[in-house]
Specification:
By secondary structure, the chain is α/β, with parallel strands linked by helices. About 40% of the residues lie in helices and about 20% in strands.
């Protein structure tokens, strides 16, 4: 799977992932103590949905484009507000009518003065662009490094509170196995941290094996959140998105019972958009 993100920014997978990311950051900010965000595959931070790259796929129209045009029930609107407010703030800050915030911009918008942000990006050009965007924010540090190496090197943070977003491009074979192994290793080093590991629902047998691996792991609390935009069984099609969340904020499970049905209704591309929110380990 080739997932160069400039072509896919704002698609259905981003909507689900970033809406949940925003909820977790909101809860981290409810305690006075500082927290740290570690983003292992950060990208460039901000994307222009009017760019040539985004125009080649047009995926954002079926993602953030639909959500911005949708009428939401009050409870869903309340839960999605931090994410949607970040989209609006990004467009105003960068004077981009079709701007879209990647995970670094979402983290920067929702972090407080006492919090710290580490953004890891392997590609030199992307790392440079992200560094230019973040250079005036003293909370943020951009590191040009392989994300998997960064995951091993930067946990645990000195704050002992925080969130690690692991959002690999899934361009190589064995990424599911690698993700499961390194997630378990990071948890052993920092068992109280919140981890959000993204994965695609394309080859559903691989996703199923990944879930099974996590359910057998030593990690004590893992919440699985998935949404497919159609119910077709085609292993060649990228039709769904998943997040394995370790140590999720306690309200997240209940909030997903509201957000996922709303997002499924808005983002579906067929007759049905199946979703799940279930504990792989821990609470039931």
């Amino acid at each position: 799977m080739n997932y160069r993100h400039a072509y896919h920014a704002g698609n259905f997978a981003d909507v689900v992932k970033h809406a949940i990311l925003a909820r977790m950051l909101v809860y981290l900010g409810q305690k006075d103590a500082p927290f740290r965000v570690i983003d292992t595959h950060a990208g460039i931070g901000v994307y222009d949905l009017g760019s040539v790259e985004a125009g080649k796929t047009g995926e954002w129209h079926a993602g953030i484009g639909r959500l911005l045009d949708a009428r939401l029930e009050p409870k869903a609107a309340e839960l999605l507000a931090p994410y949607l407010e970040t989209v609006a703030a990004c467009r105003a800050l960068y004077d981009l009518p079709l701007g879209y915030p990647g995970s670094p911009e979402i983290a920067r918008h929702l972090a407080r003065a006492q919090d710290r942000l580490i953004f890891i990006e392997k590609h030199p050009t992307d790392a440079r662009r992200l560094r230019e965007r973040m250079e005036h924010d003293r909370r943020a540090k951009v590191i040009e490094l392989d994300g998997w190496t960064g995951l091993k090197a930067y946990v645990p943070p000195v704050e002992r509170r925080g969130l690690v977003l692991i959002d690999p491009p899934f361009e190589e074979q064995g990424e599911f196995d690698r993700l499961a192994a390194l997630l378990s290793a990071a948890w052993k080093k920092w068992p109280s941290g919140v981890y959000a590991a993204w994965y695609p629902l394309k080859d559903k047998s691989q996703a199923s094996a990944f879930r099974a691996t996590l359910s057998r792991s030593e990690i004590r609390k893992v919440l699985c959140i998935e949404l497919q935009v159609n119910d077709r069984d085609d292993s060649r099609e990228f039709s769904g998105t998943g997040l394995a969340v370790v140590n999720p904020p306690w309200p997240l499970f209940e909030e997903c019972q509201t957000m996922l049905p709303a997002l499924a209704s808005i983002l579906r591309q067929g007759n049905r958009a199946p979703y799940r929110c279930e504990w792989l380990t821990g609470e039931t």
